[in-house]
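Hi everyone,

Forwarding the result from last night's run.
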Amino acid sequence: MSSRPDRMAEVSRDTSETKIAIKLNLDGTGKTRFKTGVPFLEHMMDQIGRHGLIDLDIACQGDLHIDDHHTVEDIGITLGQAVHQAIGDKQGIRRYGHAYVPLDEALSRVVVDFSGRPTLMHRVDYRRARIGGFDVDLFDEFFHGFVNHARMTVHIDNIRGKNAHHIAETIFKAFGRALRMALEYDERAENVIPSTKGSL
């Protein structure tokens, strides 16, 4: 088997609203470290790392005195950039991934495609506007930022659930699992770009 490149990236973003530094390893063990000032987002990103076996180190200084919006959106953008950088030309990966994840009464499905074409279908109906102090509308901002800059297609569907925390957690766990599947190397197509076009 040929040697494979390290799939790691370091990306920073510095604006008047946020200062972000991200390090990741797509072939990690799920180690995570966060310093963002948004605890619930950190809890959700920990699910991505642990279930996707992606090492994540994310620090952000954002304008939290206004609200969490810029911080959450810009972390999504920067994380998407880091994934896009780390994945390289996508040679040998499976490209597609999917996962169903339950948590008590909640069940969610996430399907991903590293297609090069940013598309997000995010169908989740939360029964309340906030989980603790976190505005659930910001999940959509996070995923839009991620998808647009990772250049991938993502379908997120909550199939059932009542507890908003449970719903959110099933989504992020399923997202991590789907990423893991899509980013895995396909031993039967080691040197192949997974597209009839020959590029993604």
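Helices lie at 39-52, 69-87, 137-150, 164-183.

Cheers,
N.
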